[in-house]
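User:
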Amino acid sequence: MKKILSLAFVLVLSVVLAACGNSEGKDKKITVGASPSPHAEILEQAKPLLEDKGYDLEIKTINDYTTPNKLLDKGELDANYFQHTPYLETEKKSKKYKIESAGDVHLEPMAVYSKKYKNLKDLPKGATVYVSNNPAEEGRFLKFFVDAGLVKIKDGVKIEDAKFDDIVENKKDIKFNNKQSAEYLPKIYQNEKADAVIINSNFAIDQKLDPKKDSIVLEKPEDNPYTNLIAVKEGHKDDEKIKALMDALNSKDIKDYIKKEYNGSVEPAK
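Assistant: Predicted structure:
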């Protein structure tokens, strides 16, 4: 009887230890959903830094703006890396996601592209400008035209909060076409279907466009609220593996890589 009890105890202990071992192993794995460029490329550079700390980074490339938050909220990812704070807040409000920022990593200055015109003031009356269907960035699109003196918005409306409905003066009667997802905009630009196209830099870079060289206007990085961040489920930003991920992404090695690799088309977070 004693032998049977001893054997049972050993078996139970083995199961418990195995479970603990699996749990520990799981805690050493970090699964991040990311846009292909530059997010996944930056994460690849962080892999060896995390390996030195005992972590295994798995990168899941996702080339749209709707899936990463859905997967994160379901718990299928530890983190995602593709969005900025205004977009995150819009997603949380509209879809009730329980996710939050763990910290900023980089800024992708947005840019305006045109195969027909050299600057915004050259646009003809009634010009069509293609933009994404992302409502969190309408103010970001409009800022290009406000700064160029072509558009005015309602008094008291902050530019980052502005919507197309807030336009009170449009000197050239510019039409903003926002019927398409951001990932399709480079194709519209390449097919010369628009007078101008505003493209997020990650999709521009992914299609071999250089935001600094190929655009007609590049967004300024100073006081820019659109820094890309690492998002996690609420209550997990202080997890050890998330802290390790942020330490790696904010390290000098990664900042130097971003500066050298992207030459101003992507900037490290300040």
